[in-house]
Task: inverse folding
């Protein structure tokens, strides 16, 4: 706990936008990190309240008062800043933190896309496109060493994390037809955030299942394609359909691909085992086993199963993460660990909670 | 209600296997049917108990005593029999009912496949393959007139209903590449039935999402392919992945297909509207709208949305049904209505219950 | 369905505030009523949209356009008006409907309390206290004949319905100490309505259980006490604690009372069976059986179990209703049936939906 | 993690009955304990399988093979044994472990009741009543020092933990009428365990709420009364009603008591704050705040709110725990920490997971 640590040797971090679910999850995970102190939490809407009044889970353990978002005041008290703001809001403050010499792990979408035109097409015009070349898309399994040296890490979206990790071995080995990839993804409701919307009400979501953003409309699409293209070494487009599951946490992506040469399930399972054998947070599963979101709930793991449907000669990959952990706050801490020289797993060792 | 009806003019039906969820759903729906009396309910496990002790929803409204499965005793008191038994169990009694001159709507998988070899490959050897040529796959939207004349209707599986209705307009108009169809389906937990299994426990299912039968292993696959092939006029195989959703009822199928000529979303929406314009229970949705299982819960509707993902030139169809109604008991009653000359919608007019 | 009815002989009803859950439930139930046509639906927020765009369950079955709340325009086209508005809003329009000679079933709290001072103490000052003496608290099991003659029925709250029906036999027979009644009630989330509030978000409610209004703060308290006092013939106060259950529908009240003379469980069970033997919607349970909200879901039933805890000489009553049906819209239709001379059960015959 | 620890200095513990939910929760929590190694896990049903095949959450982190229950083999490899068996099964092996000189924390009901006659009346005849005087009812907030010296700790039931902690300040200060206590408790479904029963199926529990053991029939009643009596210094009986909530984890008890002298809410809040001010795992809440199970989910906290309902002069206490943590495995580890001289909070520092 905070009080038992030697404060002087600790990294001070700020959480900007702490009153949402990813903000809370950062606090929950950092509370177990031996080298970090949370020095500052902000919230525009709840400034002046204790964070533990917003989230009573924190009572007696993190009773910091939420502050308004004053970049210079925050930069003065933090070595690294997590920005857990909506897109468009993050890019208004990130430059200030960088100018003050701070490291930033941004959980919004604002720095994930390299091409400002693509950002503009899917979101709105970018306010500081000059930062995009420098920002590192923070998926450690793809570019761990680059992240270590980064000043600004763009933390990947939840859907992209599940899809990219699911396809990495196939693409970097050029095993599939890159024009025929389909990702059918399903997310828990915390992905919609903590804002008051009728669509997110309990009675609208419970005992219900639906697709949304059908037909390539979801904003995670360009992010997925950017990274898949880099893995493939050529432009990849995919059909991506997100769905809403009546559960709090978890993303499961069922990914379909067509092999471009004869393969067997055994070969595929072996390829995944080999690719991820040294990864602390990716668990490729044995033949015939497939993941459940329940078994990664609350943890930073990504579980992946793979098979060949030999009747139709189609590869099916199933990957599962906790959208708030490996899909957001856990991965952000993994990135912080890389940037700041902590062991990569610090604060992230917790097992999944089941049931 | 039962007591207000003129009993003499009513159709007597038996429900064989009434202590499961589809059995109960038959009772719930038939209770509102103006032309039917339930004369007999059976259950091996619960014989001797009142059905309302098993399902207290029925208290005071259907207090029949469950009987053991004695085919001749049942045939003596029923004009039509719903067999809501596990596969393999149904085929042991259906011939008796037919021999006694009765009509049968079988909710199991036993009579759905025309080819006994296919049945044997996916299930076990068939005990009465001679009945397969006569059995009618009971999807009214495909063969209403044939069903009217049937003695034995094989009520379609829940997943197949959602997938076949979702693809019918595309296949019968030869609009898609029949080698590239993928159906990613998600089902509520009532599809697993009411037997005591660890995998179906509340704590195993709640706040969890998983795939199963991955790689073409689910037994509904041949049934789907048989009907799609008939619609296409040539053999169709598909990649089919079922998933388990933490909800009671509902199936949503997200279906991917590749057009074999240029099409627009408008054209597709119009095609679906036209195909289903006279169907009482299929609701094609306007452009940009997609279904939710919540909006068909408890009803016999199948809602279908369609779009073209123009970025990848792929058609995405989303169809939703209540697995216990249009996916089982409601469709069984629709078939009964056709067989017995009732209005097709009798007993099935109820709106979905939301929330 | 609407189209099959002889319109001329039908009762025209309006639903004011149709875009909430009780409004939708009125439509769902009235759709099955043989003597009613919905002529008008209103919503301030959604005026101009089709009700079936708000609630896609209604697609093709009730596609009325929502209108703004114009009392005279509504009165011109309806014989009876259901006001499903928040408290304070109802009392602004109900007098207009009455002045136009219409019957009103008000689902808000505005006319439930006889004493304007009590209303003022728990809500705000009443705008038309002169109507309170005339308004009838619409619990048919307490005053069926009075309701038949009413112009203005105040439809009871959901919690009060479950508590009052649970205690009626004990109080009217003076069997319990009226100073020691405790009602511990639990409600599904639809009771919180369809407005966008953080507290009602899926992720705030799911996998969670809490009390609220602890210590006698809930506004249903005076309503419960008013009716219990009338049953007892003397002033009754009770300790009432509501709780929020992670489910859509249902209220279960566990009620504790101290007998004022020796009683047995058998005697109590028999008393309840006798009291409610002619009630179409109250099902007293046999000894040893207790209700579940699942078994009344979607139906107008109130199931009640009772026992004596002989170790502590305390009576425990457990009552269950669907808060949207017997606790709101179903009871409103039951009241409409009484007022308008329909069979009391018309439109309300549907069995509970399970699972 | 296990690998980073100096194994020689570690405490070896065995988990007997590891394939249930409390067994898994012990593993999840002990995985974070710096001084413990799990040397042995047993399961009769799953002997020979890896525990991580039963619970894939453990993949790569705890892959021990489940063993059959051989007491001498277990005693040879463990310093302390957690017995997570059904009642009646625990008492068959606990004497063996004690005879081998081991410490035991028993999570069953077998050693909680001091009086063998009471045990016999609520369960079955006790096989080793001679151990009952020695067994310590392991609620650290009641008898921390006694637990430190114990050889056999009877870990309290989940309901009793929530009720006893909720009433302790009132009873030890003789503030309430001990004949008028009512505890209305609500539990998540994991309390029913992981055995395959129809009543625990997802579809039976979801969107449903019910009472059970109504009228003083639940076996936790004598355990509660034993401890309340000890706190009060005289025999206490209570009315206790458990309920089943559609959620995985959590118990919330709403407790009603009658003050025996005038009190105020402020006085009560202050009393609770004072009583529990040094307790690491009890969080008394400020005036006007009440707990939710969501805010203790996955943590060892017990949150308690209290108020006086001044209208009826009744005290209402609301307490919340996670039934698998403070109500079972967390408390067992807290007891282990006391017995073995670890800091009391070791392994239990994790914050609640929300949402």
Result:
């Amino acid at each position: 706990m905070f009080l038992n640590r030697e404060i002087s040797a600790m990294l001070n971090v700020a959480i900007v936008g702490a009153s949402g679910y990813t903000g809370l999850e950062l606090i929950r995970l950092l509370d177990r990190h031996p080298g970090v102190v949370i020095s500052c939490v902000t919230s525009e809407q709840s400034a002046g309240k204790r964070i533990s009044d917003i989230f009573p889970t924190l009572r007696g353990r993190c009773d910091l008062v939420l502050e308004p978002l004053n970049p210079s005041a925050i930069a003065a008290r933090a070595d690294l800043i997590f920005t857990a703001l909506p897109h468009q809001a993050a890019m208004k403050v990130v430059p200030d933190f960088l100018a003050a010499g701070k490291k930033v792990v941004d959980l919004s979408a604002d720095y994930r896309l390299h091409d400002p035109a693509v950002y503009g097409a899917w979101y709105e015009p970018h306010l500081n496109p000059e930062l995009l070349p420098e920002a590192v898309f923070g998926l450690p399994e793809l570019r761990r060493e680059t992240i270590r040296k980064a000043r600004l890490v763009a933390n990947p979206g939840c859907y992209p994390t599940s899809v990219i990790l699911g396809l990495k071995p196939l693409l970097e080995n050029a095993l599939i037809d890159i024009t025929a990839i389909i990702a059918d993804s399903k997310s828990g409701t915390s992905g919609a955030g903590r804002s008051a919307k009728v669509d997110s009400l309990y009675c609208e979501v419970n005992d219900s299942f639906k697709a949304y953003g059908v037909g390539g409309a979801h904003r995670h699409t360009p992010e997925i394609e950017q990274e898949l293209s880099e893995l493939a070494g050529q432009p990849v487009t995919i059909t991506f359909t997100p769905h809403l599951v009546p559960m709090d946490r978890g993303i499961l992506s069922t990914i379909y691909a067509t092999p471009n040469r004869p393969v067997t399930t055994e070969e595929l399972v072996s390829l995944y085992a080999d690719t991820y054998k040294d990864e602390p947070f990716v668990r490729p599963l044995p033949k015939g086993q497939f993941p459940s979101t329940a078994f990664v709930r609350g943890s930073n793991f990504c579980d992946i199963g793979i098979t060949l449907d030999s009747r139709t000669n189609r590869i099916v990959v199933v990957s599962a993460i906790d959208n708030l952990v490996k899909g957001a706050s856990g991965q952000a801490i993994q990135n912080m660990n890389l940037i700041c020289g902590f062991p990569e797993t610090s604060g992230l060792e917790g097992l999944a909670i089941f049931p």
Summary: The longest strand of chain A covers residues 302-309. The first helix of chain A runs from residue 21 to 30. The mean pLDDT of chain A is 96. Chain A touches chain B through 52 residues (CB under 8 Å).
